[in-house]
Amino acid sequence: MSTATTSRSERDSVARRPWRGRVREYDLFKELTVALVVVGLLIVGLSAIVGSPDEPSVTLKSWAQAEPADFVATATAELGGTSDSAGYGPPYNNTPDATQTIGAFDLQSFSGVRLPIDTAQDLVITPLTTLNVPPSAALDAWNTAIDTQKTDWTAAYTDALTNAPDGDPAQVATGDYGPVPVLTGALLRMASQGALDGVLNAQQSFYNSDYTRTILFLGDGAYFGDLATAQHLTGDQWGMMNETGNTPGQSWLWLFSFWYQVEPFASAPNADLVVVLLMLLLSVLLTLVPFIPGLRDIPRWIPVHRLIWRDYYKKRATGRG
What is the DSSP string of 194-261? Predict the structure, then answer.
């Protein structure tokens, strides 16, 4: 009989021996019930105290109802192609000189235009055509106008909104704005009724999880940014690692957010690209620490680990470790 077979036989023999130690009754169902109740109460209690706040979603409807003047001004910018989204560059369009670069290195353009968006057509004109009673005359006037005429109409209406009291479209001075006031007014009513959210989200398919158009439209206005500023969520407020309200946020993103608070990164026009590359470099250095002379010797020069595992090093020094 081999040694392995003997060892297995001995172990089986030990396993078959009757237990002669202390025993007590064990109610698995009772313990499971108590565990579920205790853990459930802990989850509910901790969620109520430190859980992430359940802020209501920001929608085009809530925006149109809360800040109609800002909505109309943003819709006019979408029509005129002067919004941030219209000039963002890849992946939405091919706007010249819109990307962040370092010399000839243009990481943003590597992806190409994968999500083409024409802000005038996709965010204003096409949604209006889905209305039961669309503003047909205004749509025809817009669709048959040449590009320079469209630019003149939207530029004039943008200036008029800026000069109107509180940007109120109802108090705009008389001028040659073409169909722009009718189109933006119809879109405002559509958004206020909640129809625009559904139409923008349903352009891809019936079951849609792509909210790109809605988010871009929201982001082009001042309303969404003001809400973020009030919640300390913007880039210059360490917003990347913050949460709404007073709840702790994503603290592990502190280093990523840190660079946006200090110069020269804070004011750099290509800050996003520089910070991403810097964090990539730091991540590679951290991974390669065991192979980099000097960096790998830091624990020997500053032996903080000896304080943490002082018992181990004490025993090893006395020959008992």
Answer: THHHHHHHTSS-SS----HHHHHHHHHSHHHHHHHHHTT-SGGGTGGG--STTS---GGGHHHHHGGG
Q: Are 14 and 6 in contact (CB under 8 A)?
A: no
3-class state of residue 100 by DSSP: coil
Nearest by Cα to 192 from 79, 81, 76, 69: 69
CA 127/CA 313 separation, integer angstroms: 71
Backbone φ and ψ for 217, nearest 5 degrees, come out as -60, -45
Q: Does this model's pTM top 0.85?
A: no
The pLDDT tens digits of the residues spanning 1-41 come to 444 455 667 667 777 778 777 787 878 899 999 999 999 99
User: With b meaning 16 or more CB within 10 Å and e meaning fewer, what string describes 151-165?
Assistant: ebbbebbbebbeebe
Q: What is the DSSP string of 20-37?
A: -S------HHHHHHHHHH
Burial class (CB in 10 A: 0-12, 13-18, 19+), 212: middle
d(CA 92, CA 111): 10
Structure tokens at 19: 């237990």
Nearest to 80 by CA among 158, 160, 185: 158
Q: Judge contact between 215 and 83, C-beta under 8 A.
A: no
Q: What is the H or E stretch that residue 70 is in? A: helix 68-80
How many of the other CB atoms lie within 10 Å of CB of 271?
16
Cα angle value 76/216/277 (rounded, 5°): 130
| Alpha carbon distance 127, 134 (integer Å) | 9
Tens digits of residue pLDDT in 178-225? 999 999 999 999 999 999 998 887 766 667 778 889 999 999 999 999
Ramachandran assignment for 51, one of left (phi > 0), alpha (psi -120 to 50 degrees), beta (any other): beta
Judge contact between 218 and 231, C-beta under 8 A: no
CA angle 101, 107, 111 (to 5 degrees): 135
